[in-house]
Amino acid sequence: MQQLITDKLTAVEKEHGIRILYACESGSRGWEFPSPDSDYDVRFIYVHPYKYYLSVMDREYDLNFPISGELDMYGWDIRKVLQLMRKSNTTPFEWIQSPIIYRQGPTFRDDLWQLSQSYFSQISNIHHYLGIARGAMESIENGNEIKIKKLFYVLRPLLSAKWCLEKQSIAPMTIGPLMTLLPDALKKQVSDLIALKATAPESFIITINAELKTYTDHEFARISEASTHLKRDQFTADELDAFFVNTITRYDHQ
Predict the structure, then answer these.
(1) Phi/psi zone of residue 55: left (φ > 0), alpha (ψ -120 to 50 degrees), beta?
(2) Which of 8, 93, 236, 243 stands 20 to 30 A from 139 (CA)?
(3) What is the pLDDT of residue 151?
(4) What angle do CA 24, 27, 29 make, to 5 degrees?
(5) 112-117 long-range contacts, CB within 8 A, separation 24+
(6) Band of the pLDDT at 44, cuts 50, 70, 90?
(7) What is the pLDDT of residue 238?
(8) Could you give the CA distance from residue 183 to residue 187 in angstroms, rounded to a whole number?
(9) Could you give the CA distance from residue 137 to residue 196 in angstroms, rounded to a whole number?
(10) Domain 2-119+234-250 fold
(11) Domain ranges of the chain
(12) Which Pfam families does the record cross-reference, listed alphabetically (predicted)?
């Protein structure tokens, strides 16, 4: 699969006249709790030749492809990535932390990660993660039954929101560091669930342990309440503009 992904990225570059600066795995494989039937969620950041950006015409700043077999792939232009970063969107923050990297330009990942530190908003990130957790919690049936995939769409975002609240920093992408926030009594239980998820299909239904259910309900309510007292951040585009100009100049390929 690695070779297929690498070949596909090269083909996309040639077809669209772009340069891919960074490509990684997102989704459950990147979060480090895949199921046997998990897709490969490949995400990439790219740049066009410099002149592409010098036009009065509207341009496209993303590339989407139909899901093909196990491969789910799309990419964003560096301009779109930086626009989202100004809004403290969590997606770029997660991509650049991925443990599975398929392509990266020299220093690009480190430079973008350093830039992201200036655009972290507690309230924006917390609300994003709570929104995902809320949606997954709504799929619980009969009080405590849920698909194992959906359970982790409760746990990881909830722990990410907890990280943002308590540590006041961008949440880690992978589940390992996030699990340090769990009470000791629940760490083994969640580790066992990760092991189960590695062998079960994503649609496998489990019964949530009462202690874990109480914990998630309590933490969701607590973090939601705490977030109402946080201020909304406003970020300027100065650093982003400088990064953008430097990137499109550095990687101009015409």
Answers:
(1) beta
(2) 93
(3) 96
(4) 75
(5) 112/22, 112/45, 112/81, 112/243, 115/85, 115/239, 115/240, 115/243, 116/85, 116/92, 116/170, 117/170
(6) very high
(7) 97
(8) 7
(9) 20
(10) Beta Polymerase; domain 2 (3.30.460)
(11) 2-119+234-250, 122-227
(12) RlaP (PF10127)
Beta bridge partners of 75: 44, 63
Asked if 78 and 95 count as a contact pair (C-beta separation under 8 A), the reply is no
State the Cα–Cα distance between residues 122 and 127, nearest whole angstrom. Answer: 9
Phi, psi of 33 (to 5 degrees): -145, 60
Report how far residue 219's alpha carbon sits from residue 19's, in angstroms, rounded to the nearest whole number: 43
Q: Say yes or no to pLDDT of 123 above 70.
A: yes
pLDDT band at residue 112 under the 50/70/90 scheme: very high
